[in-house]
Amino acid sequence: MGRVDGKVAFITGAARSQGRSHALRLAQEGADIIAVDLCDDVESVRDFYPGATAEDLTETVRQVEELDRRIVASQADVRDQTGLSQALADGVAQLGRVDIVCANAGIFTQGAADEIDESSWRDMMDVNLTGVWRTCKAAIPHLIEGGRGGSIIITSSGAGFKGTPNTAHYTSTKHAVVGLMRTLANELAPHFIRVNTVHPTAVDTIMIQNERTWGLFRPDLEHPTREDAADGFATLNALPIPWVEPVDISNAVLFLASDEARYITGVALPVDAGMSIK
Amino acid sequence: MGRVEGKVAFVTGAARGQGRSHAVRLAEEGADIIAVDLCAEVRGMGYPAATPDDLAETVGLVEALDRRIVATQADVRDYDALRQALDDGVAQLGRLDIVAANAGIGSLAYAAQDISDEIWQDMIDVNLTGVWHTTKAATSHLVSGGRGGAIVITSSAAGLKGYANIAHYSSAKHGLVGLMRTLAAELGPHNIRVTSIHPTQVATDMILNDSTYRLFVPDQENPTEDDFRAASQLMHMLPIPWVESVDISNALLFLASDEGRYITAVALPVDAGVTQH
Q1: Stated pTM of the model
Q2: Does the annotation mark A170 as catalytic?
Q3: Band (B1; pLDDT cuts 50, 70, 90)
């Protein structure tokens, strides 16, 4: 008996990294998956790291199906309410229900607060904050109509508690989704729909494993590497590690999504190796 | 394969209530247990204490799961006795991985200015100093084991917000958050994680008694369980009056297991939304 047997999970940003990991971990524990991803570059992110591709999303589909679970995957943009809501509605029509929502899709870029340009700021707000609201907005009617309660898990960040230099736009959105979470938790509790955030420290994915981000920790090097940056990342954490793995976030998502957490709502859960006390 | 297979957990206040539930839930997932309980009353508790028979029942429940348990009557206020009980358990079971600092007392309702020195002191001694004693006794075992570990401290929703008429309880439970965060910083280099859990009302003897009903329904002389149920539910976001011990145990299990391997210095509410309502 899986820990989320028979449930259906809606996951944004599911083509790779944490989103794919969430899809697989929930599928391992018995859930079917409705997956969406932009599968394209976001304009202002292009110079930092490449977006996921349609092939990445296909690979998520293959891995979920290999676990004998069903998955409905669509290319959709969390900035496009109509497309996003349609993708979810199609998934619910095919899989019969939705119980779990992982608002995971997000982007990361850098720049000193006074140097962030208008388009970088706007993309960050549109994807990391408004995109989460759109995800919840699409899902809430299905959850309420299902009448079985549900669990919404929003991926915030260690930067949802703390300010970190060169990320004013990112940090603002990750703080903002905490406010969104707390409000939704109050609004949806009468329906037994729980709403929580998870707050990862650095996770070993392409979002941080790129030359621009390594350079934040090694501004002295022209072409810093993953190894060059590891000691710098480790200084963020209380535990002696540079970063965590996607599955560590997925395990927290699984716990919050499962009935083991049936009375946990309105909670901001760090998975941050103690970053919050550093 | 259990989620804490092969690990050993030290549980204080294990005779009944949440402590027994923790012992049983961890044993279901493969852990052996070192259990202690005072099995006697503390002044001002406002409800009957656990008994040696209760602790014996916990032993029976764990052994019925084919797990080992070493159980001792010990007082978290008596460091030497507590340390001895834990040392004996580690000697018999071979290791220590998980600490559930659960032992605690509730109280009759008192306005802050009406709390006697004795009632104040007993509360701090059990609910705050007792947890420090528990972690102090366990730290050397965890460090010398060299495999990391998880300390999970039972605080309360009253460790995150103030509630009228339990200044001593709320002070102790807030104090635990400071202790937790400090220990997390000190023990992080050893991969020992330290977290706290913050339950709302849990359906145990500590809560389901006339003293607690009066605390939550102060305008009635003799409030009933139903009166308490209604008042308690109003505090929560989710439409429930209280949670069950197993809900706290499931949170403990998650934090204690390797699934929580990078979670430290975290105060986790299991509170039906009471702290954000």
Answers
A1: 0.94
A2: yes
A3: confident
